[in-house]
Design brief:
The chain has 495 residues and is an alpha+beta fold. It has helices at residues 8-14, 22-31, 53-62, 67-86, 96-109, 116-136, 170-181, 199-212, 216-219, 258-278, 280-285, 321-325, 351-368, 383-402, 408-421, 427-435, 440-444, 474-494, and strands spanning 2-5, 39-42, 238-242, 252-256, 291-297, 302-307, 310-315, 327-331, 334-337. The protein contains 18 helices and nine strands. A hairpin with a 4-residue loop joins β5 (291-297) and β6 (302-307).
Amino acid sequence: MQLFFLYSKLALRYLESEVISGEEVAALLDDRALADGMPIYLDDETMMPIEPHCSWGRSLSNDELAKSTKKEYGRILFRYSDHQEHRGRDVLSATESDVRAYKRVRTVLQRRPLQDAAWGKESQLLDRFYSYLKDDVGLVKHRPVRVGSRGRNPLAPKLRQRMDIRHLTLEQYRYFRDVGLGGQLPDSRVDSSFRGWSPHRNRAAADLALGTGMRWQEWATVLLPELGIGVGHPVRDVEFTVQACAKYGKARSIYVPDDSMKGLEPYLLLERPEQAATSVKRLEKRYRDLFVVSRIDHESGLVYGVLDGGEQVLAMSAMDPELRRIAVHETDVGLEALAVFICQGGLMPGADSWKRYRHAAWRRMSALAGERTVLPRKRWRWHDLRHTYALQMLNYLERQMDGEEPDAAARRRRHRSYLSSHMRLNPLLIVSRRLGHSNPATTYEYLEYTDDLLNEFDEAFRGWVGELGSEATYAEIASHAFRLEKRGVADAAQG
């Protein structure tokens, strides 16, 4: 069995056949509403479609999942099918022993066993696949594994997973940003031997993530006009709406403080122009594959351009990560990416690139760590900056509402009181809305961390974002959110 993924543009670009043209294939795929990223399973010898795998892949296409999700699901079923083939069976004849044997291979026997979270995703996919075979197409009479109590997936991890909330101290963040990403030495001197790529870009990205609380896919795909860059006048703090790049497509307003904007300046003035200039020829060769923007309406948030030969008018908030990655605009010297953060190729870095940047930063941090350096107990993640943002803002809002209250139990009683009498101004709900959490219970898990002495800072977290000595504080970021919520209450009362 071989696994492939559908991409109509590849057919347009590379298919050369006397039987059918690439344009005809692309038109056929569009007519059948087959989405890019759909997994396709072919026989090793005949290269004919394998069932029920391909029909199930079509069902994924109909579910309008993200490309990355469809590819991940496709690989999971491919691994499971390969496991069954080595046991002399197929997916339709699988027994409970087969599925549990696969679980043991993935979670115990293989060189790097899966942890509960990763296996939970695989077990859910297998449960979903057999539900499709039984309920949707009737190819099996029952699932191979007996259903647990209350319909629970019996292969899922037994332990309930909690959020892995990690947060950084001010010292840890400065060390990570300036030493790990920025190439400085621990004593703040410049390290002449540092050969990192784009230290200004990576430092700016860290400040933007920390100052806004955005998820990786949100801050890494932000566009220049969303930050007010190119409007023709100076811009301080900025607000814009994120939706297509947000989790579950849930729209929310993002506030970018002035110091996060200033943190972008060294990158925008020193590094980015050189990166953009050296990539002009590469982008020109890819002209047909890019979304070439000709006009940007900053007031309405609309962009006008050409995509796949047709004119498009799109709201920036509705542009998904893939479209943002190929969005470019015409400049005096040629095509230039519309994304804030770009790499050597001229387009925005992908997930693997940002992962590589942080891994390199961690290795550098560990190598230069001294006796007084307190590194996080686990290798840091970009998402740790979002957790740190949430904890600092929650801590500050609590103090603004009721002052200091060290008793954790009393604080929890206070939050329950807020839920019943001050829904809009409850610190938990303010932070929940700022982070885009679907359920306030997710934000509630941060409460136990706001008492942590690691997060007690003078003057409400002064100096986190920007350079040392800056007047910008997390208090200003939180106060901005608090003012927005109060404004919402007032507008509701007047309405």
